Structure prediction request, 716 residues.
Amino acid sequence: MNKKQKKMLARIVLSALLMIALQFVPVDGVSRFLLYLVPYILVGYDILIKAVKGIKNKQVFDENFLMAVATLGAMALAVSDNGDYTEAIAVMLFYQTGEWFQGYAVGKSRRNISELMDIRPDYANIEQDGQFMRVDPDEVAVGTVIFVQPGEKVPLDGVVVEGCSTLNTSALTGESVPRDISQGEEIISGCINMTGLLKIRTTKEFEESTVSKILDLVENASSRKSRSEAFISRFARVYTPIVCYSALALAVLPPLVRMYFWGLPPVWGEWVYRALTFLVISCPCALVISIPLSFFAGIGGASRAGVLIKGSNYLETLAKTQSIVFDKTGTLTEGVFEVNAIHHNVIDDKKLLEYAALAESASSHPISKSLRKAYGKVVDRGRVTNIQEVGGNGVIALVDGVQVAAGNAKLMKRLHISYIDCHQVGTIVHMAVNGVYAGHIVIADIVKPASKPAIAALRREGVRSVVMLTGDSYKVANQVAVSLGMDAVYAELLPADKVKKVEELLLKKASGSTLAFVGDGINDAPVLSRADIGIAMGAMGSDAAIEAADVVLMDDDPMKISTAVRIARKCMAIVHENIVFSIGIKVVCLVLGALGLANMWLAIFADVGVMILAVFNAMRALFVRKYTEQSGVDQQKNVSLRSA
Amino acid sequence: MKKSYKIDVDCANCANKMEDAAKKTTGVKNAAVNFMTLKMRVEFEEGQDAGVVMQEVVKNCKKVDDDCEIFL
Prediction:
């Protein structure tokens, strides 16, 4: 609670107590009016002032005006009629309570979100003249060595030059499993160093660092308005004047009709009362507050799950997604080459890998790297002699005095060794030990373990078609597509072809639905911007992609795509619920009010009650359930239970 | 030129009103109010003095929502 809210609460409580106390004071006439005026002014003076200022600034029709007219009218009626001033005071009281509550709820959720998004580093540690110094991250030049102690945030992007540690990336990615980092690896700002001291050489300025980019994205998310929001502002613009004139008509026309056409007494008081009730009910607070709030909570909830949505319009588009087009490399697959299989080997797998890793130890080719990675141990170069690189074919070397040949089919042919072709796709390293064929090693880009469940999850979310585009060969593409259960696959595409393919798919999709493209960012920027909604994976991907994308997934877990769709659908459902619920209740109450079936008490309950419910409903968008493979099934059960 | 200002505003709709008011101010190319982070981002037109334009923005915002605050 801030100072303003405390003051308001005090005013509300005091005024309520005064009003109750006055029930027991037996006074009449002018003194009664003046006494009751005290709690009324106490609770509502700011509304009256705002209403007057609104009129002065030509912003007549707002909720302050509605409330001022309604309560002043009720006061006037009470003077001439029965002297029951409580109604006017109560209306003001309830209205202010509602406003207070709403301010409180919004403040609380704002704090929740900003705490979650509290990734801005306050300082960086540098060493100067042998001493640690804390400096503003803004002032650190590229190439400076900074120190990050356990428990501190990494302030700038860089490369670890010394030390190893575990990183908590949950604020960035929503991923709670800590990540290990060691010397030579790239580190991104915004992570929290958990265990050991890290020495980092910065590679980017603060403005260009991941953490700045993310904060920038989140802070500017609301600049793009959704259609629902635009609808609400348009609605509020026409609604309030219409209601005001209707109320005026309700106060004036029926009595005139009664008087001149039916010859009945006009009962002015009754109709003015009905008109005032009508005004109180009509206050569009629930709507104009809860819709932006729902989006604000939805975007907040999403960023907490590691999904950055650049604006509420994208939340709306994302919710309608029925076709998803994936880029293959780096999105569905790891994008790095790994030993996938070993076939037809006569010696032990490990031994074969050891020979391969040692023979290739002098090479820096990606294939040799993946062989060494699969071997897993430190390569002792001393065991390798007579290394003979055969350009474009492979390598022949003596490992522990044994002749090892590792390379492609050409190398085997050259050495006149018969080899067995591989049925699997990827890069094949044939091995020969002492001139005898010893099997082959398959190295390929492996499919991410999360890809298959991610696609299954998307289908559960109601995505109809899942398509894969790739620049890779048909053979590789087909294998991946079949294993993941894609609906269609288009291979051997150049970046420009990808745009064309997406355009074709855009023409084919069902009207009213949207098409999302998911890429890791390398060469994807044009496609990302061409699709209805572009989803870029891995904030560590290319900057151009993040710029072009509408939704950015902080890590490269494909599971996050279904999370994003789910959040968007939930948020839109809440928005629609609130629109229908608020307008529905309003219309019913307005009719009741016009017919004289609702008094002002019911009116204010309808107004404040609906608003509180709508605000509560909006806050639901903030909460995102973790979506894991295991819970997928349970959640489906929940859904079907609920719908039953 | 773009600048970001801290603001204080009570409700989401008032934030929208402020945004509209800021956008209509002469010298402002574009403006966005983020209710979530309580920030206003203003893009000024070429050759405009941000300080002078912002005075007008504050005035216009006060007109639509008396309670709002922009911390210059």
Notes: Chain B touches chain A at residues 4, 10-13, 15-16, 32-39, 41, 63-64, 66-67 (CB under 8 Å).
